[in-house]
Amino acid sequence: MTTHSTTARDQDAVPDGPASAGPSARGPLNRSTAAYLRYVAGKLAGAAVSLFAVLVTSFFLFRLIPGDPVKAMTGGRQVSSEQIRAMREEFGLDLPMWQQFTDYCGKALTGDLGTSYQFKAPVVDKISEALPATLLLTGTAFVLYTLIGIWLGSRSAWRHGRFGDRFNTAFALTLYSVPSFWLGLLLIITLSVGIGPIPGMFPTGGMESGGESGFGYVIDVAHHLILPVLTLVAVEYARTLLVMRSSLLDEMGSDYLTTARAKGLRDDEVRRKHAVPNALLPTVTLLFVNLGNTVAGAILVETVFSWPGLGGLFYQALSVPDLPLVQGLFFVFAAAVILMNTLADLIYPLLDPRVGR
Fold this sequence. Notes:
- This protein is an all-alpha fold.
- Helices cover 75% and strands 1% of the residues.
- The chain has helices spanning 3-13, 17-20, 23-61, 69-74, 81-90, 97-109, 123-158, 163-176, 180-193, 215-251, 255-262, 267-297, 299-304, 310-319, 323-351, and strands at 194-195, 198-199.
- Helix 9 packs across helix 10 and helix 12 (267-297) runs antiparallel to helix 15 (323-351).
- The radius of gyration is 28 Å and the shape is flat.
């Protein structure tokens, strides 16, 4: 064998570095990344359009509410026409509608949602004050109904057709169809006021009793938190349960589960280590959607239990009507739903590469 043939064969067998990283190696990765970036850009553009539509809707929708905000602010007191005119000028209500709208949009883009009529304070400040209470309520409920829904959904699917599966599904659907405010009132009657042999064990509303500090304050807040959290969990866990059950049922006929059983794994290990992780993909995206919906859907629960969060603040603003505060809260609620839906859309392709490619 000649030296020339050996050298040629070695060159054929060992490609040099730059060639191995050429278009054939990088091409699929670059195409995949570019496709995902286009997917992300499309979703972000859609979210921006949705937010602008919410901004427009929040301005015009609440101006259909009957009532004069200026007269509501006077509290029925006798005031002169000059005073009413001065108040309209102070809040810009004397301007043409188109000018009010352009001013509102221009300020909203800078984070200024206006000044509350009844509180005489920036809307952003009032929302910031009430936001922690809402996050405490909805965050606690979200964690609980997520864990309960995934656990019961996986067990129901693994034992589908049995009594436990039928009972869990029927009970979850029943609670899911119950209006949250009605369930909250029922819990107040039975567990707060007390009925028959059942004594009143929980506060009827509010976030704290007052006069507590330190660890006693934490216990007091937790005591007030039980019923509103129970209401949200009872209404919301069914969605997670049903999606988890459906996803796991789709996975149960897969070949990899048969292989896992053939290797001698116990049925419980097959479910926990193999079937459930793969069935969680649709559930993970649902969790983001649920989180946004829970923040927006806590209005009725917070109103029923007099919880000092965004829902209770929205009810107060709507009764005036305090247009800047109502508009700002409506925008926050809608933005939470849009943001969580967008995050779900962006994360799902990372979990399932078939999406967005």
